[in-house]
Amino acid sequence: MDLQTTIYLGVGASFALYIGIAIWARAGSTSEFYAAGGSVPPVINGMATAADWMSAASFISMAGLIANMGYGGGLFLMGWTGGYVLLAMLLAPYLRKFGKFTVPQFIGDRYYSKTASLVAVLCLLTASLTYIIGQMTGVGVAFSRFLGVSSATGIYVGQGIVFLYAVFGGMKGITYTQVAQYLVLIAAYIIPAIFISLQLTGNPIPQLGLGSNLVGHDVSLLATLDKVVTDLGFGKYTTSLPGSTLNMFVYTLSLMIGTAGLPHVIMRFFTVPTVKDARSSAGWALVFIALLYTTAPAVAAMAKTNLIRTITPGVVMQGSDPYAADSQIKFDERPDWMKRWEKTGLLKFADKNGDGRIQFYNDKSKNPEFVKKAEAAGWKGNELEVNADIIVLANPEIALLPNWVIALVAAGGLAAALSTAAGLLMAISSSVSHDLIKGIFVPDISEKNELLAGKISMAVAIVVAGYLGLNPPGFAAGTVALAFGIAASSLFPAIMMGIFSKKMNKEGAIAGMLSGLFVTLFYVFAHKGIFFIKGTEYLPTIGGANAFFGITPEAFGAVGALVNFIVAFLVDKVTAEPPEHIQHMVESVRTPRGSKLVNGAH
Description:
By secondary structure, this protein is mostly helical. The chain folds into 2 domains: 470 residues, Sodium/glucose cotransporter (Up-down Bundle), CATH 1.20.1730; 79 residues, no CATH class. Strand 3 and strand 4 form a beta hairpin. Helix 22 packs antiparallel against helix 23. It is globular and about 80 Å long.
């Protein structure tokens, strides 16, 4: 069976599975629509949470970012996994004990203010819509390569699939669909990694293969990769940093607290029966997430090795000179996988010196010796552009793995993007129908009409998400990291203070959320030059690129969170304390059941 037919069958089977589950698990009440009836077992919820959490950014982009950045790419591993631990330990159990469907509902009740709830909805929508751009882009990338359609067509198909299982099934349908999607995506990630680890190192465990010697050689994979990338003018794979140490620290922190503030992940902990189950499902989710996240560094290093070996045959294994003409692949002899990915526009060539070969190197290197050597070889600039998003998806093709493995990866990439998109859409829908319509505008709405409003909100959100995927804003690069920054600067501090500070009042929380959100968006937009438009040209940004101590826009969420905390506490000091019953409620949420404080015993 040829590759394309195998892919069609694999992806088609996965879609049929998702739709079948949605029909079986369709929601019949608002409780099932928003929180799956609060009856999901911990292990099942842990698996669904893992799928909800591991988005297109985790499956498609993360290993590609680590492959490009090397050691510095570890900030994504540390930030995202550390943030999940923070969420599981410090926030999720207390939010579950509070017993509300949504984050804005928690903020509205905790801060005894509909205005606070409205501001939380604004922050949630801003973060979720920004995040969803990356998911729809991931859907377009996967469809355009594997199904031979345009990115736009891929997004339309993705919208249709999500509509079928999210609108009708609500959180109940999404939960059980995400369980299936987790099984598909984790198999699609680990099976190719096992194959490639065996090929390169002879070790079937990718995590161990990362530190093993190459087959037939007495040198490790990482040592070989270090030598090859430095020969090509790049920084050492095992030590290079993206910018300053301060930026890496702030970036990691932004991803971490942004993770803990993401509403679509928090909502998953409202679907289990008890607080104990919330803690248990958090632990299971961490196990399921770790399977992918501990494999990602190996996938990244092995994909980088295979990519360079394709472009400069023999260099990785034999250590020959990458500048020698016979070590570089001829353009007309490039392998089929390159030709297939060229059609997507995510892999590009430009024969700058007209020699018919592909030169891949760091033409922006500041090392004069390297530049001199490249010029002596007749190189006129880097001739290959590889989008980081194709590393995981193309890896099985580069390694010449069986067709069924490539089809599995296609289904896995789509499962990752669709599972998180569904979770985000659920968060958006519930905020509009439950927090805005029922909570503020029509408080006496019937359950039937609220359920209808939720489904209509979901349908509208899907249309908006598709539009953003087709027409991403000018700042779309790094949108996933930006979404984490928005959640970090706006929602996370309000949730933390709501749980751990009984004295924090509504004025402080509202002022903090708005100031954190504004400061972060201002820095991002000013950095990108969006505020200052003259005709069709952007004028220079305020203070130049990364003007605030070299911090990049994607990392600025941690600074915004600090502003949020400071403003909230300053405003809190000059305004009235929360009512006594609110303070007692906060204490009871933090106190374990059965303690003397709760049952009144002495």
